[in-house]
Amino acid sequence: MSKTCWVIVSVVAVMVIAVALTVTLLLVLRDTDPFEYDIIHLEGEGLGDLESKAAFTRFRNGANMFWWFYPSLAESPQDRPIIVWLDGVLGLPPSLYANFLMFGPYDLNMNLASESWIQDYNLLFLDAPVGTGFSFVENSTLIASTPEENVEDILYTLHSFYSLHGDFQQSPLYVFGEGHGGKLAVEFAVRLQNAINDGNIRCNFKGVALGNPVISPALVMTRLGFYLEELGYIDANGREVVEGLAERTLNALEQNDSAGAFDNFLALEETVSNEAGAVAVNIKYIIDKLTRNQTEGFGGQRVSLLNKLFPEIELNRFMDETVAPALGVRSEAPYDYGRAAALDAARDTFMRPAVDKVDHILENTDLGVWIYNGNLDALSNTPGQLLWIEDLEWSVQNNFIGNSREVIAIEGLVEGYVRASDRLHFYWMNAAGHSVPLDSPLAMRSVLQRIAGY
């Protein structure tokens, strides 16, 4: 064989080896799990007789996110949708509020809830961000300080869930978020869809459902004075006070003072009650009749309503003394102890709008976006929410704007209205405040059926 032939053969051989090595490397990279976490299984005796799984997912060398999964009571739970519930830094954690007060399988007296969503849906409660609910950090520096860290924590937790429940990977997945949880939900949806596209997680993601979401809070504040005056809670002078606070909040954001804007947001209740003249108003549920000493805590925290429903139960003590031992949660810190730190960590980002994330979901994915808003919530008042919803910039926004509202009637009662396009849906919920599942459960079930089909 000539020297030239040997050279050609050698070159070809080198090329074949290079291609083989490249393919091998790609296969190795494809099979490498990009997620590093540990799952801490809780081995308590359990709470009640229904099947459930509770655990911590530990990541970032000491951040621990608590999750609690209830498979549906339907005959084939893998064929039913999974509802992931997020709440955020304000309000009450999902392991308590959504679970025991809204639609979980048991109430606070440990009686089976007849209207629980578990009849038709798989429920996955996440105490996010870390520091809230049962979720905790082993070092205070591990409290997430950016939206990116928060959604990454949630992604790791969801990945760990599927690592134990691979038979649910084809179940339709809907991420629900209430209040600040709505902002978490849209930020997480973008991250999750990217992870799906990259092949880093397998699930049947369908979309996000946002309940009275805090998506553009400073903009929504600009309609609060109008809202309260129209309902008779304040007069023209009070409206001027509230709108002055809203204007200062917008100015703070424009000057990149997000922390100052957040401080104004947290001052809303005091301003409305003490300076604008409403006096003892629950801005999350405007028809709540409060006494002056019940307005402590942001948004009234539904104090009067919860006291009426469960006057003998102190909520955090119930989680510490009843739920934690039953699940096998062992912690010296009390339930929800890290909320103040999580809230403080959110000061620089909470008020920044996430409207661009909603636009991104609508323009760049096939996911659905469902928004439902309780009309009795002054904090996330419906006129203010419509300012950003009707100003979305995705390419077929005009189809949504051009569609007429439809009435939602249940047993002859008008419970609300809906305007919908193929991907975007907005619900006006009449007899509800900040938490539609709690205030108007039958109407919420009707909305849920429209979203997820059961």
UniProtKB/TrEMBL annotation:
<feature type="transmembrane region" description="Helical">
    <location>
        <begin position="6"/>
        <end position="29"/>
    </location>
</feature>
<dbReference type="GO" id="GO:0006508">
    <property type="term" value="P:proteolysis"/>
</dbReference>
<keyword id="KW-0121">Carboxypeptidase</keyword>
<keyword id="KW-0472">Membrane</keyword>
<keyword id="KW-0812">Transmembrane</keyword>
<dbReference type="Pfam" id="PF00450">
    <property type="entry name" value="Peptidase_S10"/>
</dbReference>
<protein>
    <submittedName>
        <fullName>Retinoid-inducible serine carboxypeptidase</fullName>
    </submittedName>
</protein>
<dbReference type="InterPro" id="IPR029058">
    <property type="entry name" value="AB_hydrolase_fold"/>
</dbReference>
<keyword id="KW-1133">Transmembrane helix</keyword>
<keyword id="KW-0378">Hydrolase</keyword>
<keyword id="KW-0732">Signal</keyword>
<keyword id="KW-0645">Protease</keyword>
<comment type="similarity">
    <text>Belongs to the peptidase S10 family.</text>
</comment>
<dbReference type="InterPro" id="IPR001563">
    <property type="entry name" value="Peptidase_S10"/>
</dbReference>
<dbReference type="GO" id="GO:0004185">
    <property type="term" value="F:serine-type carboxypeptidase activity"/>
</dbReference>
<keyword id="KW-0325">Glycoprotein</keyword>
